[in-house]
């Protein structure tokens, strides 16, 4: 994707052009003022998985959408069928809440990780444990998108890189503070990591060399999440909503509205050149990061916990009111509200073809909804 000629980088951060489109809140109510969400407070999910006994923190589809892995506060993870919610196998042995779970690049393995630092890898076809590691308290866990390589960030700040299932390990050393998030660049050769002291570092995965760290405009608060454009030109971090060049860490903009001090979640839509930010206050913004303007904003009467992009500029917004708001980010309108949960939405995941969305919740369930992409 072409990020453009870089003109927006030359504009001052204070010179954001604000373009207000239709407020999403206006379509939450019908002509009689009756709450549309209450009207639709029925279970719209195609399938519900209810084997967890308490909050389900994480969930992910495999590549063809036939299987899901979920992990929860009950120290359990399950791999189950998206056809009928039948359990393929249980990922037992965890000692704390399972907060990370996902399939590798070819669906041969599934990894599950708990907060205490126990990470396990299972052979999906054989339904058996093939590798495990127990170390520092785990903060995040991701698979490499092109190889059987598993990467985990720890509370100590060390980042571990393993070959699976051999277990060969490399460590990207800590600078004395926890690493809270990490993302592999599309080229598969570099990793961007955020830390609890506001530091952001870019690492070379092969050599283990740190390519750069922020030396100016370091976020005041811990970097709890980050995202990268598809062309690896820009990265954005939360909660500060600061944008940096991936090449050298130079700050280019900060996307906070005047009445917000931080955001909960950030997510790029590289195809459309848009960036979504969501806050605990309920403020939802969509920015055009190429032109450096705010396309639209709205204030939901709930806290935003997660945002995922789908096809046709559809944006899926998970909230603490148990609803998933499906928005058309280009026009700024609410397309539909996916209801069925009765507690906080904790995670969202989409199938590769964006035909279904998986949600997990504090209500001890995971649900699959069919997406209308017309």
Automatic annotation (TrEMBL):
Domain of life: Eukaryota
Spans of repeat WD: 49-90, 91-132, 172-213, 256-297, 338-374
Keywords noted in UniProt: Repeat, WD repeat
InterPro entries named in the record: PQQ_b-propeller_rpt, WD40/YVTN_repeat-like_dom_sf, WD40_repeat_CS, WD40_repeat_dom_sf, WD40_rpt, WD_repeat_multifunction
Protein name: Angio-associated migratory cell protein
